[in-house]
């Protein structure tokens, strides 16, 4: 990737909107190019300043229900007329099938009842502010009960998962990670990164699991276990 292409993608990269492949190419260019790296740090500082000025307030439950109902109504209205009619005709059959399923499935089998579990793999690399990333994960957990979350760190993104790492306020990241771990969040560290940067694996905090490759782990979670990808 050259400087021109890097400048075109840099804002999207800082906003965590790039896919894995172009993001990795851009990071490789930033390691070689002082000018683009300086531009990147300027963009990142601006984003952090704007982000710090924005307070997060969870939406009231009543507002969330109204929004969900309105979106559902709009989705129904957007269907073609034949789809709506087919759905109405199929209702009795669906109800009969559901009734039969409830009779045949033991009450202890939760996998066939209720809404599907939301599963997210969060990608943290050298372009991520780990303190902000952990707050975002905590906010997502608060708004999504039952969320299955995995945080995969590679390149300089692994630094906050090393023994003694602290945020800008002097707080140990290990304490913040432990709190999220207690809420069901898994943390995984790229072994290739540790090897390339000559980092002793024993420096990784016990709350994080070592995997051979961060990128490969993200791909496995997406393709094999149905996780959605989110870059923090």
Give your account of this protein's structure.
- The chain is α/β, with parallel strands linked by helices and 232 residues long.
- It folds into 3 domains: 1-55, no CATH class; 61-108, no CATH class; 115-232, Hypothetical Protein Ychn, Chain: A (3-Layer(aba) Sandwich).
- 55% of the residues lie in helices and 11% in strands.
- It has 9 helices and 5 strands; from the N terminus they run H-H-H-H-H-E-H-E-H-E-H-E-H-E.
- A 5-stranded parallel sheet has the order 4-3-2-1-5, sandwiched between helices.
- The radius of gyration is 22 Å and the shape is globular.
- It starts with a helix and ends with a strand.
Summary keywords:
alpha/beta; 5-stranded parallel β-sheet; globular; 3 domains; 9 helices; 232 residues; Hypothetical Protein Ychn, Chain: A
Entry summary:
With 232 residues, the chain is α/β, with parallel strands linked by helices.
- Number of β-strand runs: 5
Overall pLDDT level: 82
State the domain count.
3
Assign the structural class, choosing from mainly alpha, mainly beta, alpha/beta, alpha+beta, or little secondary structure: alpha/beta
Present the secondary structure layout:
Layout lengths: L2 H12 L5 H13 L1 H19 L8 H18 L2 H24 L14 E6 L5 H14 L4 E6 L19 H10 L3 E5 H6 L11 E4 L2 H12 L2 E4 L1
Parallel strand pairs: 1-2, 1-5, 2-3, 3-4
Helix pairs in contact: 1-2, 1-3, 2-3, 6-7
């Amino acid at each position: 990737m050259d400087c021109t292409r890097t400048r075109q993608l840099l804002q999207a990269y800082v906003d965590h909107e790039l896919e894995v492949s172009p993001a990795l190419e851009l990071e490789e260019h930033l390691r070689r190019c002082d000018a683009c790296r300086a531009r990147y740090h300027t963009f990142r500082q601006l984003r952090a300043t704007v982000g710090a000025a924005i307070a997060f307030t969870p939406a009231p439950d009543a507002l969330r229900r109204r929004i969900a109902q309105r979106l559902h109504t709009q989705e129904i209205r957007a269907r073609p007329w034949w789809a709506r009619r087919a759905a109405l005709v199929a209702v009795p059959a669906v109800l009969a099938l559901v009734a039969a399923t409830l009779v045949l499935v033991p009450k202890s089998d939760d996998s066939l009842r209720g809404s599907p579990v939301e599963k997210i793999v969060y990608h943290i690399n050298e372009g991520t502010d780990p303190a902000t990333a952990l707050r975002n994960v905590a906010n997502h957990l608060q708004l999504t009960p039952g969320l299955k979350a995995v945080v995969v760190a590679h390149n300089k993104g692994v630094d906050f998962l090393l023994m003694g790492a602290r945020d800008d306020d002097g707080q140990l990241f290990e304490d913040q990670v432990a709190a999220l771990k207690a809420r069901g969040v898994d943390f995984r560290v790229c072994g290739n990164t540790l090897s390339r940067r000559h980092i002793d694996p024993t420096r990784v905090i016990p709350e994080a699991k070592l995997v051979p490759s961060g990128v490969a782990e993200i791909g496995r979670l997406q393709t094999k276990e149905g996780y959605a990808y989110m870059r923090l």
